[in-house]
Amino acid sequence: xxxxxxxxxxxxxxxxxxxxxxxxxxxxxxxxxxxxxxxxxxxxxxxxxxxxxxxxxxxxxxxxxxxxxxxxxxxxxxxxxxxxxxxxxxxxxxxxxxxxxxxxxxxxxxxxxxxxxxxxxxxxxxxxxxxxxxxxxxxxxxxxxxxxxxxxxxxxxxxxxxxxxxxxxxxxxxxxxxxxxxxxxxxxxxxxxxxxxxxxxxxxxxxxxxxxxxxxxxxxxxxxxxxxxxxxxxxxxxxxxxxxxxxxxxxxxxxxxxxxxxxxxxxxxxxxxxxxxxxxxxxxxxxxxxxxxxxxxxxxxxxxxxxxxxxxxxxxxxxxxxxxxxxxxxxxxxxxxxxxxxxxxxxxxxxxxxxxxxxxxxxxxxxxxxxxxxxxxxxxxxxxxxxxxxxxxxxxxxxxxxxxxxxxxxxxxxxxxxxxxxxxxxxxxxxxxxxxxxxxxxxxxxxxxxxxxxxxxxxxxxxxxxxxxxxxxxxxxxxxxxxxxxxxxxxxxxxxxxxxxxxxxxxxxxxxxxxxxxxxxxxxxxxxxxxxxxxxxxxxxxxxxxxxxxxxxxxxxxxxxxxxxxxxxxxxxxxxxxxxxxxxxxxxxxxxxxxxxxxxxxxxxxxxxxxxxxxxxxxxxxxxxxxxxxxxxxxxxxxxxxxxxxxxxxxxxxxxxxxxxxxxxxxxxxxxxxxxxxxxxxxxxxxxxxxxxxx
Length: 695
Ligand code: NOJ
Hints:
By secondary structure, the protein is an alpha/beta fold. Helices cover 30% and strands 16% of the residues.
């Protein structure tokens, strides 16, 4: 991937330099400050935005303000009434869509489809820029192997190669060919770095890891984002090996700016600079501000630490004006790249059209259908046959929940619930929620269970509420919340041989081995977004064949966490006949479903792995009765003198769509390597399903 060339700012740079030379300290710090409007609040509002502050030039950037009219009105104050006429930069959490909500990032990751990843980012950018926005706090690139951590929902899953592929596609999608395009939005790679490794999966906890782990697992998605030209980066809230990321000069100025060559804007996370005091590395705001500035943080989001702390830090000799000027310059260059000086009102000037919205809804439906993961399908319980269905469970009539933990500007009333989707597909069904998502009320289970007697098949809609994953939503128990398991047990017992299909909604893999064993079909629906119900109906009825794969190993027991395919070998690999080998005495080592697992309505067989100059090639046949699309993965295992390497490393993936009885070949490019290695190709990371070839 070629790095997007930075424009040469000969004329404009002098304009920016002149501005900096004209600025008071307060105006400079204004460009380094991002304050929330109270339009959409994502944390404690510390500095209430005041129009006077914008007029005075002491707020240069805002978050949570969107909507063309609001934006134009506030922008006008900055551009026409402030002394230096510098336009505001407006950022927002455009995470997986804006008005049109796409599946949560973890679900999108499981599509293994760069074109789709790019398309949804492009669509989100179009909607967000029509709402006057300039900066999306996305993509979230935190590799995570611990589903207790709620933010696993927002990221790429467990694998760095996958994270890097998503990074490239998302940056392309958001930023388009040039940031100056009216429909382009600056992307923000976050949270740099290691946030996904919080101790015990507990939100905002500490992280600690080896240099090798950082380099091989957590940095690659950020490296890819920088190579793709990402405009901004957000440091993680967390500390890494004892140094908070917001003050981590070695990783920000050293690795990110120095080694990777990142020359964009570093924007702190929400209040993170002030939180350096809680981390215990600063005594007051002046020290905190100085540490962040020295580390390379250009914009202070919501801590008010630069405004209150930097003047004091300058007096104390803790900070330098040269560092302040550099930060201001980077912010102004970003505004320039977005073409804000030339025309601050262009984003938001042209209203969105109904046609464009309809196209994005169609995309949302298609993507949501392809992100569903068919984990199990005993006796081809899916697609549904003819007959009446009992729809049971608290997630069936829950349109708003379908948006997942971040919904941008998506409205609940614009979301399609499962019930609405089934109704629109013309299915004959009866519905009873049985229980609520949370809570102990089991008094309606009996009436829900009774529906089983009147139908031919049962659809159980279970799982988490949207807000049970995402930020500040770590969970220590990953079973079904409330009394849903009780409902499931009752229904499975009552259905007596009728197919029971479980749709599981969640922002993470839930640990539900009994449910998985009892269900005839199990679908990881994640949170599918605005078009949830329609997409689900498409897959249930067979109008679309599922093709999603799980981007994270699915644990069978809490005690296995973290369970991931890229583990290093043991000196005593598990051997059932030898007690003193690596194993649990009470549960298998293997996850319930391996990384990459996901069934289709076809049946794929692969054979004849060979390696040529083009890569690793296999023959593929669809021996099933339905057309379907399969994703194949390329893994390698390397041996290196003196160093252990993961037993499998993902190096590529590719898709093939085949009609029933059709055959084809799939070739996945194989990156060059020195030294001996074994190449594996298969439909998941399950060792039993991989073809291998030693090179
Ligand atoms: C805190 C989150 O960590 C970050 O991802 C988000 O962009 C900011 N809040 C702004 O809402």
